[in-house]
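Memo to structure team: turn this sequence into structure tokens by end of day. - J.P.
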Amino acid sequence: MNADRPTGLRDTVITLAGILILLGIARYASAIVVPLLLSLFISIVAASPINWLKDRGLPSWLSIGIVLLSTIIVLILLSTMLGRTMVQFNEALPVYQARLSELTESIFVLLSERGIDLETAGVLDAIDPGAIMTFANSLMVGLADALGNAVMIMFTTMFLLLDSLDFPRKVQSAQGDNSKKILDQIEERIDNVVCLEEQIKNWPTVIFDRSEAARKAVKHLIDLGHERIAFLAINDERLTGYRQTLLDHNLLYDDGLVFITDPTDVLHSAYNSTIEILQMDPRPTAIFAANDESAISAIAAMSDLEVKVPQDVAIVSIDNIGIAEMIRPSLTTVDVPKKRMATYAMQVMMLQNQFKDQQSASIVVPTELIIRDSCGAKNI
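Reply from structure team:
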């Protein structure tokens, strides 16, 4: 017990010393820290209006520009108002000090007449009207100095907001590096591995033909008479199937009709891309979505803009999740048989246990187009 006391006391002293050092550094670095914290505060406050503008279909860079410009205008107005107020305050400061001193003396005289002698109690010495006015002036000067750093604050805020746009990709990249290590550990420790929907390493995989699923969806739209078909895309074999189907039907492939959705935020990304699609001139008559989540977001965007589905714009997707037949209009989609894929995966796993010396082959399951209301085929 006695041996632990010096160690505990030493740790306490070191902790207090560290706190004092940090406070000292913060004090001398206030010229940098204060604008940085203000920039961070502005960035946090600006996030909501930026997201609101993005949800209305504006690009990210334009949303940030509008919010920053509005903030700059507000700061300029505040700087102008504070500058004028500070000049007027400094000019009138002697008058304010004299007036405050007169009021203070009058109060003390009144109290003395009633038998309360505050001067003898030291209160008069404690109240310094000049110090109060000087403090108020210093406060206004401090605010003016903070606004004087507006250029640096705005540049820092712009950097923070622009960097936040790239933050999901950085997180995904970091997760990717970590995923590779995890996959290597799985390969070392687990004998039998079966992948679903995506080929990883040389492991057996149960997948569906993404390119063929895209061909079925796009061909169905072309058969209904659509030629200008936008694509809410994932950059995989579905894009290849979309392109090949257009070429097979002598339709031009247009990069401007392909909108790659953000895998970290599919719903909002597809919604915003649909807003851009609907504002095109000429507007596409149909949308092919890489998955049902994107299609449902697209239907929500069209509903918000009072665009009728399928009368104005038809839509077809891939997946056939449970909600696809429950939304209105119900979603035409290419069914991916997930239960069958899971069954096949278990069968492949059992085969691996029985024939450990042989490499199991991958399985490609067929898909089926499920025609509902969103494409307009039932109305023909």
